[in-house]
Amino acid sequence: MQQLRVQNSIVVTPLGYLGYSKIYQESFKESGGIFAKNYDSINHDLYTVGLGLNLAYEGSDEKSRYTGYIIYERMLDGYNMDASAEFNDFKGQKFSQRYHLDKNRLNLGVGAEYAFNSDYFAKFGIGSEFATTSDNYNLSVTFGKRF
Description:
By secondary structure, this protein is an all-beta fold. The chain has strands at 4-6, 10-25, 28-29, 37-39, 42-58, 64-77, 80-87, 95-100, 104-115, 120-130, 135-145.
């Protein structure tokens, strides 16, 4: 994809991807009162497409770099997920619980990287994912050595 350079230091890069995710959860049993349940294992596939922009700014000291992104993501398949369960006190009476995952999500994030020298660096990032029924927030800190 083509990058767009603005004022010699900001780089805008278009993003596009197809994604595949797998959700797997082993079976488990709740402990507790009369309404505690046993859940069967879940094995679920998700397919998504994403489009967005990545922004990068190189600091004038050539040791720092600042980034940001915005991505719209659409789930193509896998947004209905079924889980089978039964109450602990009523063995053999299984029922299905259906979950509707959000088809549309907006991902936003910013980050900063600083190179201490040619070998060592530190990165800091904040990201968020917004959807109709849920929001996710991420924080990452990385210290590394280039080889």
